[in-house]
């Protein structure tokens, strides 16, 4: 009798332990009604056996907080990280290798993703994450000012870009030919690296003749005052603000501007692909936005992967609900009801085919600094484009050698 | 029994007080400092970030910091920033202190209002100055262009020759009130009869300033300057708010560089190394300050 009672108690304890739901934690920078908290709650509600806890972390703290958490062996189960920061964690074994799981998944299909975003979740031939969303940069232009200057089509090559900037530049009316960001941080690299890539280089090879030519072109834009000297300190958001105000005829920026531009810009505008080095030359662009990743230290890899699959299965909601562009080519964006915005999105989706990730490299932040430092040195005349890029190359070689 | 009693009254009690103060100092200031120095001699990566024992790196971190292409530029900028800021804060602060020392009606109230700049957080001050010093649409440029001093906008934040001065100007504004206040206190402490006697003997205003005010203010000036040095080397908020150390590191100083190393490039060992180098610099300045005030004769 006593034995039976003991056995019963044991089974009750076992049962209650089974019923105890698995707790998953996820970190990201999305705000209250953002993508992660919304979808995490849906997943939580749909699964009796899982509870999801979301923690919002500010952009500037995300990597440092994650570093601390990994160092103390206490990371969340899942995270969304900016794509250039991802390799720092995947290359060091902090992220869970999900190669096999993805291969077996019916929801996540590697070949439905644009190559750029997908590359950013790879390290050493293995899959460590899934792109959450993506974005890129292209050339915005003010159609009214183009018509006034008698230019029929937006520039397609670097030479045309410079030529058009000269024609459009109008200091008397406070109109610069072009605005962009050459800031001394990740934004500067985000904007300049595509030019190196278009000329056949990459972050591993930044001092080729094409890269020097590109930097010389930027320098000409600044010294001839075709762009404000403040491109050196201004971010993309402020820079595009001057375009929206009609103070620059062209702007290099991304799809995150579309909402603001359609209300702020009191003129007709369009978007074209980034001009190439020569007519019909190689295309490239920057690639932004975040990646999902599961930490290797998680106690619940299966549940975490189920959550990841749920997020991926909701990709068609990304644009209509959260204004994020899916990193996949198999999802058609619904019409926004604004013809200009739709046309612009079509161009950005075309540009995304050529978008390349920054890295992936575990020491991306240092590589990036070498690139934006060189860019700023040349633009401020402290070194020639060749000297500055040679120095950046030497720094990068040192980092790549490890 | 005697030992026990001395704990509540006597040498034992003194020891407890000293011990508590020392323990607090060690825990709050000493340990982080030692940890920082230790880290500068170690190899640190993501997984050893939380541990104390890490691979020994000797002077490798120091060598690699000095070998950075921007090292000497940053050192030069730091020196310029310190000298420029202190010179500006001190001379303007002293001038203002002397001005308000004239005790005209309302002088005390207006002097109090000057403290507004000192009370404001650095980031707010930085944001305001960033707005004032902007290139195309900056307030200062609009003003200068309005009175015809310049015909084209000056790019305070983006011109490599001006960017450091943009931050220095903001820092002078920020520290001015503090300097003025301390110097005002020093001025008020000088007995008026010394001036009266000197005046009777026919000393001019300049002579009175040089032979009475300055010597009597010696300890105050020393304190203001050394506090200024510490405050300037600690000044961080203005950099991210105004220039982010740019363009091309022309306004980067060691305290901002150390932060960039640790929290932007995630190179914690080198970040620690730069701050240890700064610490040595401050210690050196502190020793000079202590020596210079040691032989002082107090009135």
Return the CATH architecture of chain B: Orthogonal Bundle
CATH architecture grouping of the largest domain in chain A: 3-Layer(aba) Sandwich
Q: In one word, what is the shape of chain B?
A: flat
Order of helices and strands of chain A: HEHEHEHHHEEEEHHEHHHEHEEEHHHEHH
* Helix/sheet category of chain B: mainly alpha
Shape type of chain A: globular
Low-confidence stretches of chain A: none
Radius of gyration of chain A: 24 Å
**How many independent structural domains of chain A?**
2
- The gyration radius over C-alpha positions of chain B equals 24 Å
Please give the share of residues in helix of chain B. Answer: over 70%
Helical segment count of chain A: 17
Estimate percent helicity of chain A: 40-55%
Could you give me the name of the CATH homologous superfamily of the largest domain in chain A?
A: Periplasmic binding protein-like II
> At the first level of CATH, what is the class of the largest domain in chain A?
Alpha Beta
The major beta sheet of chain B can be summarized as:
none
Number of extended strands of chain A: 13
Mean pLDDT of chain A: 93
């Amino acid at each position: 009798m006593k034995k039976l009672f003991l056995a019963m108690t044991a089974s009750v304890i076992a049962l209650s332990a089974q019923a105890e739901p698995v707790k998953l934690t996820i970190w990201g920078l999305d705000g209250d009604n953002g993508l992660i908290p919304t979808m995490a709650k849906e997943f939580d509600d749909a699964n009796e056996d899982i509870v999801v806890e979301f923690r919002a972390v500010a952009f500037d703290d995300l990597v440092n907080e994650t570093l601390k958490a990994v160092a103390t062996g206490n990371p969340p189960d899942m995270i969304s990280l900016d794509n250039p920061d991802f390799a720092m964690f995947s290359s060091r074994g902090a992220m869970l290798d999900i190669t096999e799981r993805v291969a077996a998944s019916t929801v996540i299909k590697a070949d439905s993703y644009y190559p750029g975003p997908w590359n950013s979740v790879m390290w050493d031939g293995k899959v460590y994450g899934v792109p959450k969303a993506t974005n890129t940069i292209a050339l915005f232009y003010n159609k009214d000012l183009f018509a006034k200057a008698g230019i029929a089509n937006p520039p397609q090559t670097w030479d045309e870009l410079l030529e058009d900037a000269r024609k459009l530049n109008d200091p008397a009316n406070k109109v610069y030919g072009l605005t962009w960001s050459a800031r001394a941080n990740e934004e500067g690299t985000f904007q300049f690296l595509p030019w190196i890539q278009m000329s056949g280089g990459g972050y591993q090879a930044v001092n080729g003749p094409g890269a020097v030519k590109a930097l010389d072109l930027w320098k000409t834009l600044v010294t001839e005052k075709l762009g404000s000297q403040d491109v050196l300190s201004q971010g993309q958001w402020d820079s595009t603000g001057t375009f929206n105000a009609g103070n620059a005829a062209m702007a290099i920026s991304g799809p995150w501007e579309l909402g603001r531009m359609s209300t702020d810009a009191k003129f007709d505008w369009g978007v074209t692909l980034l001009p190439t080095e020569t007519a019909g030359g190689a295309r490239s662009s920057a690639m932004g936005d975040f990646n999902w990743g599961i930490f290797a230290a998680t106690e619940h890899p299966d549940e975490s992967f189920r959550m990841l699959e749920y997020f991926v299965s909701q990709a068609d909601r990304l644009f209509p609900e959260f204004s994020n562009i899916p990193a996949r080519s198999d999802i058609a964006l619904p019409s926004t009801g604004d013809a200009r915005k739709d046309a612009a999105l079509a161009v950005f989706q075309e540009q995304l085919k050529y978008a390349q990730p920054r890295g992936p490299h575990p020491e991306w932040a240092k590589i990036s600094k070498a690139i934006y430092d060189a860019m700023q040195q040349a633009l401020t005349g402290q070194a020639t484009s060749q000297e500055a890029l040679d120095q950046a190359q030497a720094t990068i070689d040192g980092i790549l050698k490890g | 029994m005697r030992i026990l009693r001395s704990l509540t009254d006597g040498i034992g009690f003194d020891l407890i007080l000293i011990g508590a103060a020392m323990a607090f100092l060690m825990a709050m200031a000493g340990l982080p400092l030692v940890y920082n120095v230790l880290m500068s001699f170690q190899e640190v990566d993501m997984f050893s970030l939380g541990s104390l024992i890490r691979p020994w790196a000797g002077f490798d971190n120091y060598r690699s910091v000095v070998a950075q292409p921007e090292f000497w530029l940053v050192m030069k900028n730091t020196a310029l920033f310190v000298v420029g800021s202190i010179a500006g804060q001190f001379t303007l602060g002293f001038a203002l202190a002397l001005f308000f020392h004239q005790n005209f009606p309302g002088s005390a109230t207006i002097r109090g209002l000057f403290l507004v700049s000192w009370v404001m957080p650095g980031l707010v001050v930085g944001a305001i100055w960033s707005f004032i010093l902007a290139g195309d649409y900056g307030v200062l440029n609009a003003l200068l262009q309005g009175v015809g001093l310049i015909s084209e906008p000056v790019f305070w934040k983006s011109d490599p020759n001006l960017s450091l001065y943009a931050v220095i100007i903001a820092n002078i504004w920020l520290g001015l009130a503090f300097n003025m206040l301390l110097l005002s206190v020093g001025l008020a402490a000088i007995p008026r009869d010394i001036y009266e006697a000197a005046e009777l003997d026919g000393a001019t205003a300049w002579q009175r300033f040089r032979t009475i005010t300055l010597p009597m203010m010696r300890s105050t000036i020393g304190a203001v300057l050394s506090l200024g040095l510490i405050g300037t080397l600690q000044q961080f908020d203005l950099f991210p708010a105004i220039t982010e150390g740019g363009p091309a590191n022309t306004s980067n100083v060691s305290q901002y560089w150390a932060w960039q190393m640790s929290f932007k490039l995630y190179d914690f060992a080198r970040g620690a190394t730069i701050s240890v180098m700064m610490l040595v610099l401050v210690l050196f300045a502190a020793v000079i300050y202590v020596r210079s005030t040691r032989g002082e004769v107090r009135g």
